[in-house]
Amino acid sequence: MSLRGAIAIVGAAESTRLGKVPDMSALQLHVDAALNALADAGLEPSDIDGVASAGELPNDVADYLGIVPEYLDATNVGGCSYMLHVRHAMAAIASGLCSTVLVTHGESGRSRVGMRPWDPAPQSMMAQFEVPYGPLGAPSLFPIGVRRYMAEYGMSEEQFAMVPVVQREWASRNPRAKLRQAITVDDVLASPVIADPVHLSHCCLVTDGGGALVLTSADRARKLDAAAPPVYVLGAGESSESSVVSGLSSLTSSRAIERGGRAALAQAEVAHADVDHLMIYDAFAHVPLYGLEDLGFVGRGEAAAFVADRNTAPDGALPLNTNGGGLAYTHTGMYGMFAIQESVRQVRGSAPAQVEGVDVSVAVGVGGMFMTSGTLVLGSEATLG
């Protein structure tokens, strides 16, 4: 049984405010985004019988909204959790476990209202084999492979700097983006070094915000009085490799992105040439480079030159991270929901930095510094044939 196009996103919205929201807790951001997504779908909380969330428990989200669900998904594998939620909801709806699933995200990443402290469990691989050696979370763990990538493939610091430069160009077209001012390669290289060779401008934002999705069957989607046309889930994939950076088979690629992406594209029956738009998680600037290669859009070691040659920029051959990404739009901690939101907007034709003629968009998330990944292939009605 193929699930290609069997499930549709009928509601998609972010929290009313992004950036600094000190008067709302993480749970409130989940709920605010959920209500916006439900309004977008033309539905009420009583229409929902499945809830999925990460960070906050789905039963807490359901209780806040007055939902008594028949399906719950508390999968939490970091920033790509929402890609996995969508994939799991596809199976749940298709098998009759539920009919309409609400997927929510909310984090007070900047203001830290209602947030739990990050503290690896003492029995975890990270606590045993990495924390004792001094890494201070993502800013020191994520960039470990960048210097190796430079040595292996010859990427220059100037090429690497082009990732945030191009994403600022996209952000300048998006009124909701936090960083909209254009920057140059020199600006990037003049920003403080965080973990050599990663500078501050290579690093994601730290913000408050949330987002939510509403999914149902394609048949039901066509009957709803939603604010926008359905966006169909053509394919989805997920994978994981290791629970620690030091356990990865390679520091210059991600097997999780490769395997999850391959599964999603195969299910969607989509070739690389069919993809009109791409969102790749960018907690740090090298992640889109790895993603371009792991997904097969370019060969090994070719991504930096591909970006530097402006292929991912406005009017480029493969528009990438068109909301400005985690580097310039927003990044609450688990960014994957915002990548999905932008893919939905692009397929709907409603994005602030809209790319002409987007029928197929691919959204890729990673979690735990490359250890997990999820990929979604989203399409318009025209892709169903």
Give a description of the structure.
- The chain is an alpha/beta fold and 385 residues long.
- The protein has a single domain, classed as Peroxisomal Thiolase, Chain A, domain 1 (3-Layer(aba) Sandwich), CATH 3.40.47.
- The protein is 33% helix and 18% strand.
- The protein has 14 helices and eleven strands.
- The chain has helices spanning 26-41, 58-65, 81-94, 125-129, 138-141, 144-153, 157-171, 185-190, 218-221, 255-268, 286-294, 303-308, 325-328, 336-348, and strands at 7-14, 50-53, 71-73, 100-108, 193-195, 198-199, 208-217, 231-240, 277-280, 360-367, 372-379.
- The protein has a nine-stranded mixed beta sheet, sandwiched between helices. The protein has a two-stranded antiparallel ribbon with strand order 5-6.
- A hairpin with a 4-residue loop joins strand 10 and strand 11.
- The longest helix is centred in the N-terminal third of the chain and has 16 residues, at 26-41.
- The protein is globular, with a radius of gyration of 19 Å.
Report a brief summary of the structure.
With 385 residues, this protein is an alpha/beta fold.
Q: What's the count of strands?
A: 11
Q: Which structural class do the helices and strands define?
A: alpha/beta
Unreliable stretches, pLDDT < 50, 5 or more residues?
none
Q: CATH topology, what is it called?
A: Peroxisomal Thiolase, Chain A, domain 1
Principal-axes geometry comes out as: globular
Spatial strand sequence of the major β-sheet: 3-2-4-7-1-8-11-10-9
Taking all Cα atoms into account, the compactness measure Rg is: 19 Å
Query: Mean pLDDT score, rounded?
Result: 96
CATH superfamily placement: Thiolase/Chalcone synthase
Total number of helical segments? 14
Q: What is the CATH class?
A: Alpha Beta
Order of helices and strands: EHEHEHEHHHHHEEEHEHEHHHHEE
